[in-house]
Amino acid sequence: MYRIKVKQLTSGNELSGKTIIADGSGGFIYKYPQIEKGISFPVTPINGDLFYYLTNNILYQYDSGRSKWLSVEVISLLLGKATINQNTSGYFGVADVVHSSTTGIIMPRNGTIISATLDNINNMGATRNVEIRVNNSESVKLTLSLLSGNKSVSVTDGDVNFNTGDFINAIAISNSTAPELSNTTLLIKVAWRN
User: Buried b / exposed e across 76-99, counting CB within 10 Å, b at 16+?
Assistant: First the structure.
């Protein structure tokens, strides 16, 4: 295996400062240099940069699409509900605990809701929305629209921020023309935010 250090590229070049390695089949792969660490985040990051933040011992990666540092570790929140009738708005819960407008999963640090997936056993006859809310706010939320003819939906470009102590809950919005949601699971992915 041959190693070549790239030194003659400009700082804006994608390969600048990385190590190029021959993969043995005529191609090359590159690797990032050693992960930076400290108590202050780099001020001019590029997408994919890694930084180990010594204040909370968390490894972060810069996400240029969301313009923020997010933890490499992604946390999954699993909510569910046996039945939510078509003419009723209903909150999801964890195990036997159903959340309400004043309850949810309390967040231990600042973070961002980055994605969510909803699945139920009924195909929809009309669109049914499910809102993942921060502190039950109707304006700080990620909306999943379960479209007619579908029984599941995913959103992968979420960018909803929350702060330490906030709670996350989810509610299916009533729709008199869509069938009930049955045996529904909702997987929410969050990453810690700098």
Answer: ebebbbeebebeeebbbbeeeebb
